[in-house]
Design a protein that fits this description.
Length: 1217
């Protein structure tokens, strides 16, 4: 060890830069070649005359005072390098001399590509200087006094970041904060004559006379730039801490002196396919990616690492492409495959597996902010998993990314859009939605659209569009107006602003799975056959019905009631009691009630005390038999029935003869001065009104007829509700005819159940019981024939219920004179009661299948989707971003800095989606391939994957990024192809071994001089544990599941976590129920996104909680026990064999001897403990729901469980290397 630098053996093919001293050089090089000058006597050296000029001319560009261009923090302008890369008195032992003299073109310093190679005389001078003691010239110790070599400043890489970070806030695109009219974000800004404000601030070729240099170098705070933003004033003078660094100032000075060339921001220029660069070692590369990487390495005097061993490589690529570890069989097969295409074949197999789509979906869903809950305070459940499954299927089918884009952003607008294309648009309905009481719907309508704009900007364009919501963007050329022009594309969704608190909010789509489609198709086939069978009896049915009608004409008065899903029927014929049945009931004049058949399953108890309150029953002639007279005081208490909730479909019907324009007809509601909870059918100001309410005026849905109903005449009123919780869920019929409705309140969020009974003629408890007054007047007039159904009746059924004529009366009418309702009532009554057994069987068979299909359809999950309003909603620039301060009206449009939309096309969301994937779009392809690179290497070519704007990081390999982007486009946006290109490259296949100094100089592997190595993502860690334990259930898609979670966690949110059972406990983490405000704790511990907002780059932390989680979480303890069972049943007969088996099963590698010894010793220690405490052993092996193998010894099983737990906790286990 010399000067703190190891001189050990360097690994094969790793060529280390002079700046990266972590790996030593001893033994790697054969030594310097002999030179002529080294053989001749030489005069004594003077450092300032002989050595300083060599360092200055050949080394200071990369290792000098300029921190912007300095490599690996190594400086040759001070004496700090003496004692590190220079071993005083021994040139051959000095890394500096070794790098100057190596014959390896890649490892030589200065880099061969720089054209600055030293002459033999210069090399000999350095050798003699080192051997002579490496004295430093004291008079030149001040580095600033030394002449610097000329270097060409890269404006995009070096100058613009300085201006963006320090100047754009006051001199950038935001006109609101711009000072003195000066812009430094556009080409004309620095060079323009500023009139009354002075001349140009930059004079190309003359830094000394440029105002920019004067201001950044000023010594007085009030003069020196940059200023800082103040809290109460626009700007205030900066301090010394705000000043530019000397290196930044020197960069600006050089740029100006070299002509101040201006370049457009690289990300806003369409990518052009670059030429593949030549390299010194062309044999190393496997595809063009490697030439770009190696060219960059060679320019820095670096070389690539050797290829990773085959086991490591297979594990790496399997985890990267499937999110799962390779099986032992996969590893063995790969190691035994000697074919030259073995690795490529393995890659193709992985790309073709269904696990590929699941792995890719995890990345995409973070950006799509997918979750199973709505966010905000209640964060209640909703159903969006059909979108998640669409994403999986899209990746597995290798859907071209341009199609993938268009369908998610505008699939609903495609011609003849399919179900899948409409499901895809759930991307922009995944955002959080607020259903809290008291919110302003208009405010959250705006928030929804802002989220769509921001998310779309991040995912496809890598831009922080949301920064332009309230004002012009501070750094990027994006105005506030342009933000709202983008806003306009997404502002046409027919949504309410206030979402449903529970479940999905409109617009939404019933979205059957393939299995459900198959079941529907089978039912449709059976239904078609049943209908055909019944239709074949048409003549027989017609003849039999005519014969029956003729017999009715001569019989007494006979009637029939539609009993399909009839919950309760109050005929009110001399008795207020109801008929409680869902079966068809035949009624004749001397039959007042008939209870036949089974009750509805939801009825635990039937009412037994139906009574008239506040008076005695007063029966009068009604529309059908008798009716009850209501005087505004009395009402009927019909008992505990019809306690519907907001998602129950139901219908209510009655005949009314009202003498007042206000009054309750039928209700089940808690009423009083404080509002109403429940449902009701009312007259209000002469109009018929239907209300479902949890809280009056705040949480309910209410409609009323547009027209006033006439008084003092019999009317049949009927309302239906389909359970969808919006005004469109209602239909109202008057005398069997549908009437127009006006929405009053537009959505209900809570279940609205009440303990109050069903009432006829009133709503809410009597005043003496409530201490207040009813919320609606009691009915005045006559009510007859009240019915409640547990379905939303069809228009035909509504017409039948509204037909008061008896069967006999209808039969006596000529067929041509019968109304549709009369004819349908007669037909249904015949088929239900009088037809032959043969006809009834055929009719009932078709009806049963119709009901079965309807029930299946009603139970199919929905998904929220995008739809367009017609006409579109007006969009305005919102002043300061406030929803209630609209400014000028704007139309849809795209930022001027990007290519325009086609002039001859529509200006809508579909046009915008297609614009994003035009070949000349500068961002979409770059942003996408960068995220692919980030997924595989841990860091993108552009580190700031979420920000390609002026505040984002410059690409580490810009030409490679553009080559990947153009390749992606030219391949037809083929996702699997571009991923295959990357993972088969020599760059990806490098070993990831790294020395401490390499790690310090390039911690994120931005130079790509080694293979990728990073801790696995949260989902992958859990899925790996389930896989090696043999617990993972390989089932693609379906509803989200609820695996183990700390008990009581959801209680804090007044909700209950119903843990899944059986296979659902062991599904891939992708399918875990994701609650935004309480995401799975084990996932959050390993840095997963909460998905409250769009995230395309996550940090990786290292905390003790992660180890504690792996040791104590039920998932991992159970997995360890199952691994232990495999050790005992599959891993051999000795502890040593079993330990090696578990290590290999989990990491794919054989353990090193020292690791094997530690694990084996731990097993024996645990065995001694658990043999003495079998109760503790039983407690350990009983963790988890999967059954344990009771044939295995408990003490041994517990001991192996602890060893397996140690292995699952290893860095090598949870790291991809």
């Amino acid at each position: 060890m010399v000067g703190g630098v190891s001189m050990g053996q360097a690994p094969f093919r790793v060529v280390i830069p002079l700046a990266a001293l972590a790996i030593g050089f001893g033994g790697y090089f054969s030594g310097p070649p002999a030179t002529a000058s080294a053989q001749q006597p030489a005069e004594p050296l003077e450092f300032n005359r002989d050595i300083r000029p060599i360092l200055n001319e050949s080394c200071l560009i990369c290792h000098g005072p300029n921190e912007t261009t300095r490599q690996a923090d190594l400086r040759f302008d001070t004496d700090d390098f003496i004692g590190t890369v220079v071993v005083t008195g021994d040139a051959e032992a000095s890394p500096l001399y070794q790098r100057l003299t190596t014959e390896d073109r890649i490892g030589r310093m200065p880099p061969v590509s720089s054209g600055q190679s030293l002459t033999d005389e210069q090399i000999d001078a350095v050798r003699r200087w080192i051997d002579g003691g490496a004295e430093w010239g004291a008079e030149l110790a001040d580095a600033d006094a030394l002449p610097m070599p000329e270097r060409v400043v890269d404006f995009a890489r070096e100058v613009r970041p300085i201006l963006s970070q320090n100047c754009f806030t006051c001199h950038g695109p935001d006109e609101g904060t711009r000072q003195r009219g000066l812009r430094l974000d556009v080409a004309e800004g620095p060079f323009a004559d500023r009139g009354t404000f002075g001349g140009a601030v930059v004079i190309p070729g003359n830094a000394d006379d440029s105002l920019l240099i004067h201001r950044v170098t000023a010594t007085e705070d009030r003069v020196r730039m940059p200023y800082r933003l103040g809290l109460n004033t626009p700007v205030m003078p900066g301090t010394a801490e705000d000043a530019l660094s000397p290196g930044e100032i020197e960069t600006l000075r050089l740029w100006i002196d070299q002509g101040a060339e201006w370049q457009s921001h690289w990300a806003f220029v369409p990518p052009e396919r670059p030429s593949v660069p030549p390299v010194a070692d062309p044999e190393w590369g496997r595809n063009p990616i490697d030439s770009f990487v190696l060219s960059s390495l060679e320019a820095q005097g670096l070389g690539p690492a050797p290829e990773a061993d085959r086991t490591t490589l297979l594990r790496r690529v399997t985890l990267d492409l499937t999110g799962l570890p390779p099986s032992a069989g996969d590893v063995a097969a790969f190691l035994n495959d000697d074919s030259p295409d073995a690795y490529e074949n393995a890659v193709d197999r992985l790309l073709g597996s269904t696990a590929f789509g699941e792995r890719m979906a995890v990345e995409w869903l973070d950006g799509a902010r997918y979750a199973d809950s709505s966010g905000y305070q209640t964060d209640a459940p909703r159903s969006m998993w059909r979108y998640r499954d669409w994403v999986i299927d899209a990746y597995n089918s290798n859907m071209p990314f341009d199609q993938f884009t268009i369908e998610q952003l505008a699939g609903d607008m495609l011609p003849s859009a399919t179900l899948d294309q409409r499901i895809a648009t759930a991307f922009n309905r995944n955002h959080s939605q607020n259903g809290e009481g008291g919110i302003v719907p208009e405010e959250f309508l705006v928030e929804n659209v802002v989220d769509r704009v921001s998310t779309t900007g991040t995912v496809w364009m890598g831009l922080t569009l949301g920064c332009a919501r309230c004002h012009d963007h501070k750094f990027d050329p994006l105005s506030q107006r342009e933000f709202y022009e983008l806003f306009a594309f997404f502002n046409n969704v027919p949504e309410r602003g206030k979402a449903f608190k529970y479940g999905n909010s409109p617009p939404m789509l019933t979205a059957p799975t393939d299995e459900q489609f198959a079941e529907l198709a089978k039912l449709d086939e059976e239904l078609a056959a049943a209908r055909e069978a019944f239709a074949n009896l048409e003549t027989e049915v017609a003849d039999a019905q005519r014969e029956w009608e003729a017999s009715l004409a001569a019989a007494g008065d006979v009637d029939w009631v539609l009993r399909d899903k009839l919950l309760v029927h109050h005929p009110l014929d001399g008795d207020i009691a109801g008929v409680y049945t869902s079966e068809p009931v035949f009624l004749s004049p001397n039959v007042t009630s008939d209870v036949r058949g089974e009750r509805e399953p939801e009825l635990a108890e039937l009412p037994v005390n139906v009574k008239l309150v506040d008076g005695q029953p007063h029966f009068v002639p009604g529309r059908i038999g008798e009716a009850v007279s209501f005087d505004g005081q009395r009402f009927i208490d019909a008992g505990d029935i019809a306690n519907f909730t907001y998602n129950d479909p139901f219908s209510v019907a009655a005949w009314i003869h009202s003498t007042a324009g206000d009054g309750v007809i039928v209700s089940r509601a808690l009423a009083g001065d404080q509002g109403e909870r429940g449902w009701g059918l009312y007259l209000a100001d002469g109009k018929l009104q239907v209300n479902l309410s949890e809280r009056w005026q705040d949480d309910g849905v209410r409609v009323e007829t547009q027209d006033v109903l006439p008084l003092d005449e019999w009317l049949h009123v009927l309302m239906t509700y389909d359970g969808k919780r919006v005004p469109a869920s209602f239909r109202v019929y008057v005398n069997g005819e549908s009437v127009e409705l006006t929405p009053q309140i537009d959505g209900i969020n809570n279940p609205m159940r009440t303990r109050e009974p069903l009432r006829i003629g009133a709503s809410g408890p009597p005043p003496e019981d409530s201490g207040g007054t009813d919320s609606a007047p009691r009915f005045q007039g006559l009510i007859d024939d009240v019915r409640v159904y547990t379905q939303a009746l069809t228009p035909a059924q509504a017409a039948v219920v509204a037909t008061a004529d008896s069967l006999t009366e209808i039969a006596n009418l000529p067929a041509a004179d019968r109304t549709a309702g009369q004819a349908e009532k007669l037909r249904l009554a015949f088929l239900d009661q009088y037809a032959s057994e043969k006809i009834q069987e055929a009719w009932r068979a078709a009806g049963d299948l119709e009901r079965k299909r309807a029930e299946l359809w009603d139970n199919i999950q929905t998904v929220m989707v995008m739809e367009e309003m017609d006409p579109p909603r007006d969009t305005f620039l919102l002043v300061r971003g406030a929803y209630d301060v609209p400014g000028e009206q704007v139309s849809p449009g795209v930022p001027a800095v990007l290519p325009p939309l086609p002039e001859d096309g529509e200006n809508d969301r579909l046009a915008f989606a297609r614009w994003l994937v035009e070949p000349d779009h500068p961002l979409t392809a770059r942003v996408t391939v960068n995220r692919f690179w980030q997924m595989l290497f841990g860091t993108g070519i552009v580190k700031t994957a979420e920000n390609f704007g002026l505040q984002g990081e410059y690409p580490s390999h810009p030409e490679l990024l553009d080559w990947l982007a153009t390749s992606f486009i030219e391949s037809g946006w083929d996702v699997k192809s571009i991923l295959r290109e990357i993972v088969t490259s020599a760059t990806y296949r490098q070993a990831s071994a790294v020395t401490p100094d390499q790690l310090e100089s390039d911690p994120e592997n931005r130079m790509l001089a080694r293979g990728p190595r990073q801790r696995l993502p949260a989902q992958m860690i859990r899925d790996q544990a389930l896989t090696v334990a043999g617990l993972l259930v390989d089932q693609v898609g379906g509803p989200s599941v609820k695996p183990y979670q700390p008990e009581g966690l959801w209680d804090q949110a007044s909700q209950r976590y119903d843990q899944s059972e059986g296979d659902d406990l062991y599904r891939r983490s992708l399918y875990t129920y994701w609650k935004r405000t309480l995401a799975p704790p084990s996932m959050l511990t390993f840095d997963s996104s909460t998905r409250e907002t769009c995230i395309v780059r996550t940090d990786r932390t290292n905390t003790p909680l992660q180890a504690l989680n792996l040791m104590n979480d039920v998932t991992y303890v159970e997995a360890a026990r199952r691994v232990a069972e495999r050790m005992m049943t599959e891993g051999g007969t000795t502890p040593e064999e079993r330990v090696a088996f578990a290590y290999r099963l989990t990491t794919a590698h054989r353990p090193r001897p020292e690791a094997h010894d530690v694990l084996s010793s731990a097993f024996h220690d645990y065995l001694e403990r658990y043999r003495a405490d079998r109760a503790a052993a039983l407690g350990l092996v009983s963790v988890g729901e999967s059954p344990r193998d009771e044939t295995l010894d408990i003490a041994e099983l517990a001991s192996y469980t602890m060893v397996a737990s140690m292995i699952l906790n290893l860095d090598r286990t949870i790291t991809k290397d």
